[in-house]
Design a protein that fits this description.
This protein is of the alpha+beta class and 220 residues long. The protein has five helices and eight strands; from the N terminus they run ααβββββααββαβ. The chain is globular, with a radius of gyration of 17 Å. The chain binds a DNA duplex (13 and 13 nucleotides) through strand 3, strand 4 and helix 4.
DNA sequence: GTGAGGATGCACT
DNA sequence: GTGCATCCTCACG
């Protein structure tokens, strides 16, 4: 059962926490990839200086100002995509960043995607990946290295700008499946990662959620 | 095991 | 021109 619009229209912190344990599903050329969400972060409104929307409505951020349940996919560091899910009501810019997932189905396709997307358009290797499922130094791209980070999971699931604005309630290409909620004691929280530019109140806000002891969580 | 540094393109002053 | 909601490799213990 895919999650409906109502699920995403709630308070962003609530959505971020409830997304833990849910399955993200990616359909690509009749191949299905499935993974459990194990780490999320909430970015909430113009007053949150870590949130891209704090600078107002721009071409980049307009999806966040739109209807809940759509994907906000953006590009950073010249090489990485990030997947967010828009929350709350229309015109209130907020989203949940998916930071890490644990693959449960279609892992071969994910490994292939990770190898392929690590290359530039000119075919030159950017990060030392070969097509053998290992990096050039022999480090495995399988196991937790497959999707224990926001850019990694986008590579594995082949999520890119073409999915920016995609409606996750359609149940096609990309959506989230219902799963039983996790017991409270399995959920940890902490400040968000990689937002040193934000104001202190936002840097210290514990708006990152993760499944305790799950090996796919990106950092302690 | 940890930490520095580079790769890289796009949105936005 | 600046600065990223990152990942990978290499050097060092």
């Amino acid at each position: 059962m895919k999650l409906n619009r109502h699920f995403y229209q709630k308070n962003t912190l609530e959505v971020a926490e409830e997304l833990l344990g849910k399955n993200i599903v990616r359909e690509q050329n009749n191949t299905y990839m499935k993974a459990v969400i194990v780490e999320t972060e909430a970015y909430i409104g113009k007053d949150d200086t870590a949130c891209h929307a704090s600078k107002g409505l721009t071409q980049r951020t307009e999806v966040m100002f739109g209807e809940a349940g759509h994907a906000y996919v953006y590009f950073v560091y010249g090489m990485h995509y990030m997947l967010n899910i828009v929350t709350e009501e229309t015109n209130f810019p907020a989203a949940v960043l998916i930071r890490a997932v644990e693959p449960i189905e279609g892992m071969e396709a994910m490994i292939k995607n990770r190898c392929l997307t690590g290359k530039s358009l000119t075919g030159k290797s950017l990060t030392g990946k070969s097509l053998t499922g290992k990096s050039l130094t022999g480090k495995s791209l399988t196991g937790k290295n497959l999707s224990n980070g926001p850019a990694k999971l986008c590579q594995a699931l082949n999520i890119n700008k073409s999915l920016n604005g995609w409606d996750l309630t359609l149940g096609k290409k990309l959506w989230i499946e219902e799963n039983p909620s996790l017991p409270e004691f399995q959920i940890g929280n902490s400040p968000r990662i990689g937002i040193g530019y934000a104001e202190e109140k936002d840097r210290i806000a514990a708006w990152r959620f993760f499944i305790k002891h799950n090996p796919y969580v990106s950092r302690k």
